[in-house]
Amino acid sequence: MQMRKRLLNPLLFYSKSLPFSSQNPQLPHQFFFSPITQFISTSSADNLNGLIDPDDPFPMQNNPRVEPVSSQDFAFLRADSVPPSQKKVDAGKFSNDAVLIANAILSDNGEFEDKTQIVLRQFRERINEKLVVEVLNLVKLKPELGVKFFIWAGRQIGYIHTSAVFNSLLDLLESSNNDHVHEKFLLEIRNDDKEVLKKLLNLLIGRYCKNGLWNMALEELGRLKDFGYKPSRATYCALVQVFLQADRLDTAYLVYREMSDAGFHMDGYTLRCYAYSLCRMGQWREALTLIEKEECKPDTAFYTKMISGLCEASLFEEAMDFLNRMRANSCIPNVVTYRVLLCGCLNKRQLGRCKRVLNMMITEGCYPSPSIFNSLVHAYCKSGDYSYAFKLLKKMTKCGCQPGYVVYNILIGGICGNEELPSSDVLELAENAYSEMLAAGVILNKINVSNFARCLCGVGKFEKACNIIHEMMRKGFIPDTSTYSKVIAHLCNASKVEKAFLLFGEMKKNGVVPD
C-alpha cells in the first residue's frame, strides 16, 4: 500500500501543476504528458529480472489477455485530483495560445509579475478579439485575473476591445457575484482607462434591458451617473424599450424626456415600439405628436405597427382611417398591413369589419394566408353565418389557395357538429362542400363522418349516409369500431334496421371487431 502511494503522489503532483490540459491535437503532446508517459511506460526492453516469477504459469509476454499500460489508463488519476472548479473547463475547444496564456496567468497567483509579463509579451502581436474572448472564458472562475488580463490586452498597440470582448468580461464578472458586477473591478478598470469603463457600463445597462431586467438596469444607470458618465443614445433606447415591454409608459416617457434633453433622438425601431405602445393604450394622437417631434417620416412597416396597436385597443375605425393616412403620405398598404388589420378585427370578433377588410385587400391583390382563411371559416361557422363561411372557400380558390383537409373539416364539422340538426339549406352547403372535398381527394375525419351521417339520416338521406364510409374508404380512410357503431346507431334510430345490418356485416367483413 505504501509503495502504491509513493507511485501515485508524483502523478497527482504533476497533474495539479497545470491548470488546463489541452485536447487540441495542435498542441505538442509531450508538453503535457511526457513526464507521465515516461514514468508509466511499459514499452521498455527491460524484462524486469528478479521481479517476475519464472514459474508463473501465465507470463505477461505470452498472455494475450494482458495489454500494455498507457497514459490513458491513468487518466482517472488526474480527473480525481483536479478541483471541481477546473473540471468545468474544456480546454480542447480553445486555441493553443489561449491555453498557454491562461496557464501562465493562473500559475502566477494572479499577481501579473515579471514572469507572467514575459510569457504574455510573446503574444502581443497575436492579440485579437477571438484570443481575448477565449482567455476570458478560460479564467472565468478567477474574475480578478480576467480583469487584469482584460486591462493588459487593452494596452496593446493595434488592439481595441470589441462588443464580444466586453460581453465576455461581463459574463465573467456577473458569474462571480450573482449577476451583479462588483465595484472593485469597475474601479480597477476606471483607474486604467475611463473610456473603457464608460463603454462597459453602457453595455451592461443594455444587457439588462435586453433580458427584461429593468430594475437592475436602473441600478446600473445610477452607478454610471455616479461615476460621472452620461448614458449613450443606445443605452437610452434600450431603457425606453424595456419599459415599453413592461407596460411602464410613464417611466419610458421620463427616460425619453431625459434622452431628448441630452440631445438624442430615438432610433427607428425604438420610435416604432413607442408609437405602437401609445396606440395600444388608445393614445394615437400622442403617437403622431411624438413622430412629428422626432422628425421621422413613417414608412409602411411603421404604420402597420400602429394599426396593430389600434386593433388591440379595439379602435377599429381609427385603424381603418390609418389606411387613408398612409396613402396620403405616399405609403401603400401591403399584404402584411391588411393581414394585421384583418387578424386584429378577427381576434376581437369584428366579423362585419372582416368582410370589409377582406374585400379591400383582395381587390388590391393582397391575399390572406391559408391559416387566416381557416380561422375566418371557423369564426363564421361559430357565429352561424354558414353561407359566408362557404363563400370563403370560393374566395380561397380565387386567391390561389386551394381548400384542403383542415378548412373542409372545419366547415362540415361546424355545420354538423351541433346538437340540433341543421336546416335543409345549411345541410345542403355541407353536402356541396363534401362533393368538392371528394373531387379534391380530401377525406373527413372520423368525428365528422359520424356527425355528417347523423345529419343525413335526420333528413332521410340514408343511402347517402351509408355511402359516406364507402367513399371515404376509397380515399384512404380507415373506419374503426366507433365510426361504424355511430352510423349503425343513426340508422337504427331512423328504423332502418336492414341497412344497419348490412353495414354491420360489412364492418365484420372489413375485419373491424364490434364492441
From TrEMBL:
InterPro entries: Mito_RNA_Proc_CCM1 (IPR051114), PPR_rpt (IPR002885), TPR-like_helical_dom_sf (IPR011990)
Keyword Ribonucleoprotein: no
Domain of life from the UniProt record: Eukaryota
Assigned GO CC terms: mitochondrion
Keywords: Repeat
Sections of the chain in a coiled coil: none
Recorded GO MF terms: mRNA binding
A GO biological-process term: RNA processing
Positions of PPR repeats: 197-231, 232-266, 299-333, 334-368, 369-403, 445-479, 480-514
Family: Belongs to the PPR family. P subfamily.
Protein name: Pentatricopeptide repeat-containing protein
Species classification: Eukaryota, Viridiplantae, Streptophyta, Embryophyta, Tracheophyta
